[in-house]
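Example 3.2
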Amino acid sequence: MIRQRGLVRTINGLGAALLLMGLTAGIFLPGRALAAAISGISLTLGTGTITSDVNTDGIPDGGSMPGGSANYQFKFAVPNSTSVDTIVFEFCKKELIPSAGITTCDAPTGMNANNANLALGNDDTTGWTIDTVNSTANEVIVSGSSTALPSTSTFRLDSIVNTTDVNTTFYAYIAAYSGGTTGTLVYDGSTAASTSDAIELIGTMPESLVFCTGHTVDINGSGVPDCTTAQNVAGGIPFNQLFDPNQTAWAYSQMAAATNAGSGYAITVSGPTMSSGGSNPITAMNTTDISRPGTSQFGMNLIDDSTPTTKEPDNSTAIASDPTIGQSPAPNPITYYNGDSAGTGAAINPVSDGTNYYGIQQGKNGTQTTSYNGGWPDGTDNTGDPNNYPTYSFKTGDIVAASDWGASGQTGTSQPSNTQRYTSTYIVNVPGNQPAGTYATTLTYICTPTF
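Structure, written as tokens:
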């Protein structure tokens, strides 16, 4: 729409000549009613923050997006306290400068303000309404009772469809009248805005599986297992002592896993039992049992220690012992790396004296244990159970961990999982006639996601 602003009240032949001179030389024209200038005008194209901004017309929301539905927030300073009753917001391809005789408004391509509405809850719009009869696609007229605007005023017009021109500047002309648009122009001014091409970011998260094994896998500063820290022992992980028919030997390794597979992951262990050069095998614990020194046993227990403790309740060092292995009343401790905890409600606690033994919630291949010979240091669960030992087993090809296991090794709903760390504890018991030799085995853990 092209609108002509008629600001010269009397034009005769001489006046017309002077008008032409004024356009080229910028001289003052007799008979022109000059309005006071609005200052500090800003126009922000927003995407909306209140209920009235919700777009249901199928037009994309979009700030300065070409063709997007936006909220136009005007802020400006009025030059005086003169009362006005009509404010015109007019959008043009080029700036209107009536004082210089530039009064033709060419509507921005595709702009549509026909569905504009005043934002709710804005104090400066109280008492003002949109004149839907006289407003057009590029001109919004608001009317109210004659009043003086605040020295700094804010008006927000919601649901205006931007021009469809891309990366294009357009202009907003503000004119305040007393006595309607045909009355006295009290003050006016203009500001610029621009559309901008949308920046579309596209990224892909591929199917992911993180899995690592080692003697140790550290926890990073965010509390997440870090596979870059996985370390092994050259020549094999040693047991804590020589094999002895009177005491249980133990060793441990760790692994970490994470996946975004919809059905999570499962970890299996494969390999033979320990033997000496392929001979004299130590019996694999094909059925779950406690540690029994003096018998032939090779087994493992595994805990989910994705939330390890760094200090135990008594503020001891992070290395902790599980004293529950072996036969009461003198069990042999297993040392776990970094004071790991399993699940909720229990942590591995070091032996604080020769009497009180503390327990751990066990994971796969083990039962959920509570307390031993005196209960927890805080005095809870003091009943104790000296016969409640962790259990172990070993069966090649067995699933030893999964992303949906809880602290007690119970399965739940298969699901993706952030990184979990597991500690596998291995035990060896031998009879007194076990042949001498160097015993070894190679175990392979396989983590299989289901996408």
